[in-house]
Specification:
Strand content: 25-35%
Oligomer: single chain
CATH topology of the domain at 73-84 and 117-227: Immunoglobulin-like
Shape: elongated
CATH class of the domain at 73-84 and 117-227: Mainly Beta
Number of helices: 2
Helix content: 10-25%
Amino acid sequence: MTSTTQQDDQGQGSDGQGSDGTAGGSDGGAGPARRSPVRRWTLVAAVVVAVGAVAWLAFGWFGVQGLFLDDEVNEAGPTFESGAQAEPSDLPTTVPPASTPSAPPATTPTTSAPAAPVIEVVAAGDFVSLDHATSGRASVLTDGTDQRFLRLEGFATDNGPDLDVYLTTTAPDGEESTFDDDFVDLGDLQGNVGDQNYEIPAGVDLDRYTNVVIWCVRFASAFGAAPLA
């Protein structure tokens, strides 16, 4: 009897230890798993790179800030190498002194002063809207020499990235894809609002390039155009 009781007690003790051990093992396995610091920093870096890429596309490539900001200019009329100005001068006129009656009139040869150069508009037209609302007037100015300027007055269009001013053979109602087939680049658009001048290179045939277009080089888009007639 004593031997049986001791075996039962040992069995119960063994069962209790086994139960406690199992419970302890279960409690240890149910604990929360820790995220690796390397994995966490990799995720943060990926988010930063993604945000940077979106910002570059929005502001660097598409130029969305231009939708809210205007580049305004207010350039006076061009001055030609001859000294002619597209705007009249306000300099006072000098009146010669009167001659004395006692002195006989001098008999000196007279020479006619060279005629002052006159600014003329040789071609002009109004802008029409194409891919973006555009208004104003484009004029070709000359002083009678080979020097010519394209002047935009009362000009306004939407702002955008990589805008240039082209003289082109394509009329405003022509196929958009042909505006940059045969053209003369006068340079970057100085501002999307206001008066501005662009010198036309010597030798450009204005009988051929009879239109001006505001061209977005990056997206091959015509913002607006005007005929020069």
